[in-house]
Amino acid sequence: xxxxxxxxxxxxxxxxxxxxxxxxxxxxxxxxxxxxxxxxxxxxxxxxxxxxxxxxxxxxxxxxxxxxxxxxxxxxxxxxxxxxxxxxxxxxxxxxxxxxxxxxxxxxxxxxxxxxxxxxxxxxxxxxxxxxxxxxxxxxxxxxxxxxxxxxxxxxxxxxxxxxxxxxxxxxxxxxxxxxxxxxxxxxxxx
Length: 191
Description:
Blueprint: H1 2-33, E1 37-45, E2 54-61, E3 67-80, H2 90-94, E4 99-101, E5 106-113, H3 118-125, E6 129-140, E7 146-155, E8 164-174, H4 186-189
Antiparallel strand pairs: 1-2, 2-5, 3-4, 3-6, 6-7, 7-8
């Protein structure tokens, strides 16, 4: 009788471990198969020489499945070096038309023009202002889960080049309890 009881206990423990392993395997498969959006190219050119400098920002789906209903906004502007940039309003992003972005495909604003006023040009040359690029995208994966990608970049005019540093790079899954207007947490924004 004790052997039978021991066999039942061991069988239940084995089933519990098998269920846990199946959950982990399904979660891993979903993570491997879903779409992942990332900024592929970000930069600027023509500063301070040109009256019409440009910036580039290209989004890539690095995942293995299409990203559906991709919506986003990109804002580029000049402001003080210690300015705290703000992401585009989520409601504005969600009101935009969506599109599908296939695996290893790109989407984005490549070489869009900026307006550089004479006053901003003078401030740029004195390293008093810099170029900020703020990007927010929302998309769905093939499993119907919604994700949010928040990114902010800051130019390095002091280096004399056209490089931009990421000051926020956060991607997370959204749910119905998500407060969409809250900024990313310190952990999410950490590079």
